[in-house]
Amino acid sequence: MSFGTVAIIGLGLQGGSIGLAVQEHLPGTQTTGYDLSPAHRARAAERALVHRVCETPAEAVENADLVIFCVPPGVMGLAAEQVRDALPARALVSDVGSSKQAISKALGEALPDHMVIPAHPVAGTENSGPDAGFAHLFRNRWCIVTPAARTDLVKLSELVGFWEALGANVEIMTPEHHDLVLAVTSHVPHLIAYTIVGTASDLEDVTQGEVIKYSAGGFRDFTRIAASDPTMWRDVFLSNKEAVLTMLQRFTEDLTALQRAIRVGDGQALFDQFTRTRAIRRSIIEEGQDDSRPDFGRGDHEAGVDAAE
Amino acid sequence: MSFGTVAIIGLGLQGGSIGLAVQEHLPGTQTTGYDLSPAHRARAAERALVHRVCETPAEAVENADLVIFCVPPGVMGLAAEQVRDALPARALVSDVGSSKQAISKALGEALPDHMVIPAHPVAGTENSGPDAGFAHLFRNRWCIVTPAARTDLVKLSELVGFWEALGANVEIMTPEHHDLVLAVTSHVPHLIAYTIVGTASDLEDVTQGEVIKYSAGGFRDFTRIAASDPTMWRDVFLSNKEAVLTMLQRFTEDLTALQRAIRVGDGQALFDQFTRTRAIRRSIIEEGQDDSRPDFGRGDHEAGVDAAE
Question: Residue ranges of the Prephenate/arogenate dehydrogenase domain (chains A, B) (predicted)?
C-alpha cells in the first residue's frame, strides 16, 4: 500500500466510511481527519472514524500522502485552500464529490502545485453526518476516477489500488462523461424524488396524514431518496447544472408523451413503455447492484422482527 | 368469522397472498380460486395458494360467501360477468383494484343483484404472478374500503373484519377520495419511475451498461418500481385518468420551479425544498410504513450474505 497517511477532510457519511474502511482493510495506514463542526469532530472521535481527529484542517494534512475532501461540492475549493500551506508537496489530492467538472476545477485552482485526481464512489445511503458511515459502504460499488489529461500514472494507479482495497470496483472516465452519466443515474432521480415529496406535502384535498398512511403504494421509496443531505444536493445541482438540465428536458418530454397517452386512452403505448423497463431491473440485479429480494426485502425484515417478538 | 367460503378470482400477487393469508389466519374458512392462465392455475395448485383451484370461474364461486376479484382493473367487469350465473345471491362481492371509481361502476353493472363493496389493500411488491404471493403481505398495511352510499352495514363490518384478520388496518373512504389519494401516493410515483427508466434506456451518449453500473446513485430504486406488472399499471392509469392527470400537472409545475432554480442558480430555493421533505420520511418510519434501516437495509443484507460465505 502506497499511502502511509490518509487525511480525510469532512467526517460525514463518505468521510466516516472511508476512515472505517481504511482501518479495516489497510491496517498499515494511518488516518487523520477534520470536520468543520466541533460536535461532529467529537462524535467522530467517539466512533473512531479515523485514528486521530484533528482540531484544524492544517493539522490533519501535515503528514498526509493522500488527502480526500469529503465536503459538499460547493465548498471543495474553500476546504482545499485551508490546507494549502500545510499539505506536503508529495501528497495526492482527491475527493468523493458527486459532480466532477466543477470540483476538478475548484481543487486544481486551490492547489495548483499538487497532483489532483478527483474520484466519486457511487455509494451512499439517505443518512448523513458522523453517525452515518460504515466500513462496507463501498463494497461491490463502483468508484469513478476522473483524471485530467496530464495525470501522473503512478499516482493514478495508487489511487485506483486504494479504492480497490476498500472493496470498490474502479472505472476511469472523463469528468464531462461522469457528469452526464450521473445526471441520469443519480441527480435527476434525486430531483424528481424531492419534487414529488414536495408536491404531496402541498396538496389541499389530500392530507399529509393520508400521504403517510398510504405511502406503501410506491411513494415511500421516493421519501427515502428525498431524505438525503440538503446541502450536498443543493451543491450537486448547482455544480452540474448543464447535464442535469439536459437530462431533465429529456425526462419531461418522455413524461409528457405518457401523460398524453393517458389522456387519449392509448393503452398500447402505456403497456409498451411499462414492459421494456423490466429488462434494466433484471440487469441491475444480475450485476450485483441491487438486492434481488422483492420490495428490497422489507417483508423479510418485518417477518424477522415478528419472529423475534 | 362470517365467510365460510372465500372465492378468489385471479391468483397473482394479491390473490395468492389473500389465499395464503386466509389459510394462515382463518383456518375455518374454505378457499377456492381461479386464474385465466392454465399455467398459473397449475402453479397455484402446487403452491396451495387456495384449498381448491378450479377450472372455471363459475366452479370457483358456486359456494362462495365472499368473492374477491384480483384481476387487472380493466377486466374487473368481464371477470364479474363470468361468475354472474353461478354466484350465490348471499355472496358479498369485493376486489383489490388500485382505482376505485371505475371498478365500483364495472362490478356494480356486472353484478346488479349482489352487494358490492370494493376494497384496496395498499400493499404489494414489484413481483407478479402465482409465485409472488406471501401470507404476510397485508400485515400492518392499510386496506381502504370504499362502500357506496347504500351499503349493508353488516356486510361492511364483515369485510372489515376479514381484512383485519389478515393483518391489515382498515380505513373507509369514498371511491372519489381514494382515487385522489392513491394518485399521489402510488400512481404518479409509478408513472414517474416508468418514465425515468425509459429515458435512461434511450440515451445515445450514456450506454445502458453505464446506467446499470452506476444505478446505486439512486436510479436503482426507480427500476424496482418500474418492474411492476405492465398490464395492471396500464389499467390503473386508464381507469384513474382524471386524478392522475391532475396530480401530474401539480408535479410538473413543482418540477419546473426547481428546474428554474437550478438554471438561475437559486441555491436557497433548492435548499429550502430539500429540507422540508425530510419530515415526511420520519413520519412514515414512525408510523411503521417503512423500514428505518438506511438504504432499506441493503447494507445489512449484504453484510449477512458475506457473513454466510
Answer: 4-292
B6 Cβ under 8 Å from any chain A Cβ: no
**Fold adopted by A5-173:** Rossmann fold (3.40.50)
CA–CA dist B94, B59 (Å, integer): 18
Q: Within a 10 A sphere around the Cβ of A279, how many other Cβ atoms?
A: 14
The CATH 3.40.50.720 domain(s) of chain B lie at 5-173
| Interface contact A295, partner B, CB < 8 A | yes
Count chain A–chain B contacts defined by CB atoms under 8 A.
364
Which chain A residues are closer than 8 Å to B307 by Cβ? none
Nearest C-alpha neighbor of A198 from the set B190, B2, B257: B257
What is the nearest CA distance from A307 to chain B, expressed in angstroms? 12
Q: Looking at the domain A177-276, which fold is it?
A: 6-phosphogluconate dehydrogenase C-terminal fold (1.10.3660)
CB burial of residue B286 (10 Å; 0-12, 13-18, 19+): exposed
Check CB contact under 8 Å for B142 and A199: no
pLDDT per residue, tens digit, chain A (309 aa), is 579 999 999 999 999 999 999 999 999 999 999 999 999 999 999 999 999 999 999 999 999 999 999 999 999 999 999 999 999 999 999 999 999 999 999 999 999 999 999 999 999 999 999 999 999 999 999 999 999 988 999 999 999 999 999 999 999 999 999 999 999 999 999 999 999 999 999 998 999 999 999 998 899 999 999 999 999 999 999 999 999 999 999 999 999 999 999 999 999 999 999 999 888 898 999 998 888 888 888 766 544 333 332
Q: Compare all CA atoms of chain A with the CA of B278 and give the residue at the minimum distance.
A: A227
* B157: amino acid identity, one letter: S
What is the CATH code of the structural domain delimited by B177-289? 1.10.3660.10
Amino acid at A93: V
Contact B214 A281 (CB under 8 A): no
